[in-house]
Amino acid sequence: MTDKIYILVAEDDADDRYLLETAFTEKGFKEKLTFVENGVELMDHLKRIHPGASSTEGPLPCFIMLDLNMPKKDGREVLKEIKEDPRYKKIPVIVFTTTKNEQEISRCYELGANTYVVKPVGFESLLQTIEDIRTYWFKTARRPQ
Q1: Residues 6+ apart with CB under 8 A from 42
Q2: How many CB atoms lie within 10 A of CB 24?
Q3: Which of 70, 84, 124, 137 can pair with 38 through a Cys bridge, CB separation 3.0 to 4.6 Å?
Q4: For the chain, which residues score pLDDT lower than 70?
Q5: Exposure on the CB side of residue 80, measured as CA atoms within 13 A
């Protein structure tokens, strides 16, 4: 994988960020993880690397792992904003959250989530979940270029 391939992770909890980074490292995955701590930072990141139709734009993330319950701008607001913006709507968004509520799951899919994953409780489960997500989005799914 090249340095331009990365995953954008919106997660406000420092322990969860550490566990995700550790899981990717332990599995030997080479993709860079870029972390933001809230929805405002996520949208600022996207606008900074891909502001318009310039040939000097940076690469978009392969996918976004999005926590729902974040300060400043929560995941629902960000999901809606990403999927309504033609510059970003093709980026797969994986809602990665502790929320198990069926209405919340339905709402996220209605807003354009590509996948909804409830965060696993143990580290071994996290390793398997990360491997499953990565395998699906890098090997199984076909996306537009």
Answers
A1: 8, 10, 36, 64, 66, 73, 78
A2: 20
A3: 70
A4: 1-4, 50-58, 144-145
A5: 7
Where do runs of H (alpha helix) occur along 50-101? 75-84
- Tell me how far apart the alpha carbons of residues 90 and 60 are, in angstroms, rounded to a whole number: 10
pLDDT digits (tens, 9 = 90+) for 124-143: 999 999 999 988 988 888 77
Distances (CA, A) of 22 to 28, 42, 96, 127: 10, 21, 16, 9
Structural contact between residues 96 and 90, judged by C-beta atoms closer than 8 angstroms: no
Domain made up of 18-49+60-140: CATH architecture: 3-Layer(aba) Sandwich (3.40)
Give the CA distances from residue 40 to residues 29, 36, 86, 90, in Å, rounded to whole numbers and listed in that order: 27, 9, 18, 19
> Would you state the pLDDT for residue 98?
87
The pTM assigned to this predicted structure is 0.86
Q: 10 Å Cβ neighbour count for 106?
A: 11
Q: CA 88 to CA 115: how far, in whole Å? A: 16
Given this model, what pLDDT does residue 145 score?
A: 66
